[in-house]
Amino acid sequence: MNPLFSRRELLKSSSCGFGLLALAGLCEQQLKASPAASESASSNPLAPRLPHFTPKAKRVIFMFMQGGPSHVDTFDYKPGLEKDDGKSPGQVPGKGNRKLLKSPWKFNPSGNSGLPISELFPHLSKHADDLCLLNSLHCDLPNHPQAAVQMHTGNFQFVRPSLGAWVLYGLGSENQELPGFITINPIARIGGAQNYGSSFLPAAFQGTKIGGEGVQLARASVPNIRNAELSGPQQRQQLDLLQKLNQDRLSADQVNPQLEGVIESYELAFRMQSAVPKVMDFADESPATLAAYGIGGAAGAKAVGKGGGGTDNFGRQCLMARRFAEAGVRFIEVGFGGWDQHASLRNRLTANCSGIDQPIAALLNDLKQRSMLKDTLVIWGGEFGRTPHAQNEDGRDHNATGFSMFMAGGGVKGGLRYGATDEHGIKAVEDKMHIHDLHATVLHLMGLDHEKLTYRYSGRDFRLTDVHGNIATKIIA
Prior knowledge:
The chain is of the alpha/beta class. It contains 12 helices and 17 strands.
């Protein structure tokens, strides 16, 4: 009898077993290792591994703002843009006679460091001394699909492993009951699964999706995570029988990487049934914590569609990210779309920022109170920025030649403004930071040498940064 066949027939013969089968199918995709990555039946691709050198950060929380937030209205203060408002210097090829548009919002010196932060972020600005503003990012193309994929994988031309997958491949996971890479409400339309995929890396390292674009996180769950028919001990008995069949087959084959992945996937699925819902359940969080993140209440209950102004949905994402980080998940990404503001900049950017300002500030404060910010690297940003020129009177166009992101915690210097764009914010001109440089720096902070973190595929060694990447040493504490 073929154990692989019998295990499926056994589960399919009982409706109570289908949930575990479906959940294990999900885990199987994440845990199936290639022959090169699996050396024995007991090998675990997600086991913790030593970094190349002592890391500054143990985990990453990446907040991806899809659409391209306007840097000149948020974190890149440009007095020259205010001075030249209405002028048409013709510095952007192909933009005709578009006129410069000053920011409608004031920039206030914040914290002891005096970082200039837009008044759109009254809560976040209180954490200015924890922020490292990166004002000299640039990427290769000002198109959403290519730029978003490059931000996540380093390459927009070919399918490549995502940043989260590379981090998990290099370091493994600290919690064997949870996925090592989780993406919360990922943006589906731009990049899709490529943004959290593992490509040619073993599937063990791809991200586990929770929710999706436009999904209310309060109702999101991992499919088939609950079993309403069998108790935990009963499922354990059923699984023990299946695993015995598979182990017998493995003993006969001696080497069978696919079957090893099947065995581990069922074990992870069983463990996840209790571990994942527990982390996703906010019942043990105090009312004060929920209020701090903007969850519930009048402000949190506002509509939170794409780019909506309510804090509830993004607040839940941030709190869930903190809980997963605390539980030992290595890489967590949270998604928030609606930043592609070609028109109605004043209304739409105000709504976006009000939706994320309080939750991000609460996340930073929460991590700091738990002594986690020092070894948690928090990253915020989109795939590119916006032009300082006006579009449709009250909007801004795509700009890939200069834009802003920020980091906090995880070994970066707080209260720092790194790099610069030109006087109007069009192009990065000082300490320029390409996406490859960003990725090299993130890996370095995690204790990984981006030139040594390689994977043999199709006859050559691949790495996240390809043949590029310079570490931004000036931002490292």
